[in-house]
Structure formats: C-alpha cells, structure tokens
Amino acid sequence: MRHKPANKPKAVHHDYLGQEFPLPVKKSLVYSSLITAILFNLLPLEDIALILRPDFVALTLLYWNIHQPQQTGMSIAFITGLIMDVIDTSMMGQHALAYCLITFFALMLHRRLRMFNIFRQIPAVLWMLLLAQVAIFLTGALAGTYSTGWYIFLSSITGALSWPLVSIVLGSFRRQRTDPDEI
Amino acid sequence: MQPTHPPRFFRLGPSPLARLFFFTLLSIFIMIADNRSDFVSEVRRAIGVAIFPLQKLAYTPFSLQNQLEQYIADFKLIEEIDLLRREYLNSRHEFFQLQALAAENKQLRALLGAAQQNEIQVVLAEILYTPRDPFSRKIIVDKGSFSKIREGQVVIDDLGVIGQVTQVYPWASEVTLITDKDHSVPVQIARNALRTVISGTGRNSELELRFLSINADVQKGDLLITSGIGGVYPPGLPVGRVTYIEYDRSRKFARIACVPVAGVDRHRQVLILVDPSRPTPEISENLDTHATQTGQQTKSRTP
C-alpha cells in the first residue's frame, strides 16, 4: 500500500512525457500499416486459428486513432471497412459501420487512453472490439440471417490480448520517424 | 497570414459525432442497397479486383511452403502424383455421371433423350482463404471469370459436391459451401429415389433434410445424390449421408441430420464444373423456394 503511490506517479509521468509532443507520422505509414493488417487478415487459416485470429485491421485503426488522430479519420476507417466487407464476404457496409464506431470512440477517448500504458489500455480496447463485433452481428441479424455461436466473440478477446504486440510494433515504426535526436 | 485560411492548428473539420452520424447513415444505406439490389455488387467487384494482389501475396508463404515440400521430396514422383491426382479427379467426375446415367436408365427404362451427355469441362482451382463471416460459410478460390467461371457453377472434389460459385471476380471467385445456412441442394436418396432438398446448417460438416414428414422412408446411412431438379446441379453427384434421424411426435417433420460426403472444409484444391453450353443459371436463393416446393410435392406422392 505504501509503495504503490510512490510508483504510480512515476509511471504516469513517464508515459505522459513520452506522449507530450507526438510529431505527426506520414500518411504513407498509416496506409502501409493498414495494408499489412489486411494482409494478416487474409492469411489462409483454418478452424480454430480462423476463429481466434484477431482483427488486425481494427487493431491498427484503433492504434492510429488513439495515437495519431490527425492523420487518420473516419473516411479511412469507412473505406477499410468496405474492403474488409469484400474480404469477409459479409454484407457491404457491416465492417464499415463497425470501424466507424470504434473510430468514433477512439477519437473521443484518445487523450484519456494515451495516459495509460499499453497493458492498461487492454480493457478499453476489448470493449471497443466487442462493440465492433456486436455491430457486425446485429446488422447481420437485422438483415435476416440467423444467429451463430458465442465463439465468434473470442476473436475480440484475442484481439485485445494482442494489443500490446500491435502497439509495440506500430510504435517502433513511429519512433524511428520521431526520434528527437535526429532533429 | 491569409485571411481566407484559418490557422492549420484549429482545422479539424466536422466533429467526430457528425462524422459518425454521416458514415453510419451511409453504411446503412449501402447495407440496404446491397441487400435489395445489384448496384453495390459492382463496387464489390471493383474492390475484389483491387485486393486480388493482396490475396495472392497472403497466400504466397503457403504456396512457397508447398513448393518447398515438393522440392524436398522426389521431384518427378511428386509431379507424377499431381498429374495422377488431377486425372483421378477428372475421372471421378465422369464416374459420377456414369452412376447417374445408370440409375436413370434403370428407372426410366431407356426413355428417349434421357440425360443427354453434354461434355462438361472442369477447372481445377486452389482455395485462397476462408473468409471469417459468422453468417455464411464460403471459400475464395483462385480462378475467376478469366477461366470461364460464372455464377451458379457447381464446385466438387473427388468425393462429392462442395458448393456453388456465388460471386465472380476476374481472377478469383467466391464459393458458397453446401453447409451454408442459406444454401439448399435438390437431392434424392440413392436407395429409393425419394426426392427432397438438403440444406446447410451453418456449422461445419452438418447438413439437414428439413421438410420430410415423419413417415418418409429415410434410413440411417442413406446416400443422398443430386437429383438434377432446378437445373443448377447436374444429377448424380453425391452430397451427403444420413447420420441421425429423430422422430418427434410433437412436430410435423422428422429431424434428419446428414454429413457432407465431400471434404467441404478440408481441401486445398477443388474442381469447378464449367458448362459453356448452359446459360447462366439462377443462383441458389431463387432455387431454394422452387426446389422446396418440388421436394414437398414428391414427398406426398411417395408411399
């Protein structure tokens, strides 16, 4: 109990300083990371791996909307969503709607989320991913298709668990470009 | 400072809520349009063309792995096996046709013009990936309209029917598997030619016969073959085998579960039956209602 308050401000302080003046990344980095995420979503997996595969596109969109809201936006999320609709052979607009929703919440919460470290961001990421899946699920159900098993929501959980990895990888690309020593 | 442009620092455009509202409306509009009309499928096709390089690229590690395996193994032997496998697949298809013709001959005692044997070409296609959509069961294969693939063509493997082509891109196409919830195949029981319709359940390797009354002559282990009614599926292709029958007195219909004969989700290579002589048939949604009616008519006539 006594040690915790001593540690806590230090960590927050460190995170906050690191994010104080984020230089804008190039748009090409955002686009290329999204294309790479689409590639990961296209991997020919089967059975359990297919069910558990995180939605890398949603994670990448979340990352850029939290850390670089000026460089991304809802139109990018919408177009990426349409591409994912074609890839997942779902109804056109389902993923687009879901990605716009998570983009909105990421934009609303990005200042708060940036104060947390990567691992404390996991719960927030989890509910945003779940929200996206519920949006896809509901729109599909409203369109007259049937309900499926609960296991489709497992990919949100794996997605949230792979959030640290995604943000470390994307952050490493970003850090190279915003290294203060180079300027 | 130009007075016409506000400082860049404050230029944020419409608020996120306004954007969300706009894009939500737009996506709902697109969803309705996709559900009700064919207009959006052009957009879908365009995007499908655009992402084809990505699909190929994502498949590259797997095809490289395949190639490496081939390289490690005896080169010529593998090649020969591949050739033989193709030949085997081709001959299996002819074998199915032969079976159908034999059964038909037996039943109709050589009525004139029964089952004119138009030669059907086959195209060997490779599965690129499985899309993750909780509402449908589909696969994407690497042959498209440039290989004469059209919507409505039938996809089989060496054991039986896998599904039907439902969306064609220039270099790829979408195959709806027979296990898809909205997919139905007109079939008949090979043992007694009882005609009915088999439907997917949306689960792996499970099919069901939905509207068979509890006194219908169905036995466990019965083989179901396509009946050819509806004109989409050629007659005589094996579809499924009855595994489980439940007679519940409180319901009108028996609950009959089947497993697909073909390895619906176990294969890397499939065969698409390309029939150039036939005009593009209606796809399964239209077939569904028609075939269900046919099945019910048949049922009432059978003892």
List keywords for this structure.
heterodimer, A: 183 residues, mainly alpha, B: 303 residues, alpha+beta, six-stranded antiparallel barrel, six-stranded antiparallel beta barrel, 5 helices
Q: Tell me the structural class of chain A.
A: mainly alpha
The largest pleated sheet of chain A is described as: none
Number of strands of chain A: 0
How much strand content do the residues of chain B show? 15-25%
Multimer state: heterodimer
Gyration radius from CA atoms of chain B, angstroms: 24 Å
- Which geometry of chain A do the CA atoms define? globular
SS summary, helix count of chain B: 5
Order of helices and strands of chain B: HHHHEEEEEEEEEEEEH
User: What gap, in angstroms, lies between the N and C termini of chain A?
Assistant: 42 Å
Mean pLDDT of chain B: 77
Please characterize this protein's 3D structure.
- The complex is a heterodimer of chains A (183) and B (303).
- By secondary structure, chain A is an all-alpha fold.
- Chain A is built from 9 helices and no strands.
- The longest helix of chain A is centred in the C-terminal third of the chain and has 25 residues.
- The N terminus of chain A is likely disordered.
- With 303 residues, chain B is α+β, with helices and mostly antiparallel strands.
Summarize the SSE layout with pairings.
The complex is a heterodimer of chains A (183) and B (303).
Chain A: H1 3-18, H2 27-41, H3 47-52, H4 56-67, H5 74-87, H6 94-115, H7 118-142, H8 154-161, H9 163-177
Helix pairs in contact in A: 2-4, 4-6, 4-9, 5-6, 6-7, 7-8, 7-9
Chain B: H1 16-36, H2 39-50, H3 52-72, H4 75-108, E1 121-129, E2 138-141, E3 154-156, E4 161-168, E5 173-177, E6 184-189, E7 195-200, E8 207-209, E9 223-226, E10 238-246, E11 255-260, E12 269-274, H5 284-301
Antiparallel strand pairs in B: 1-2, 1-12, 2-5, 3-4, 3-12, 4-5, 6-7, 6-9, 7-8, 8-11, 9-10, 10-11
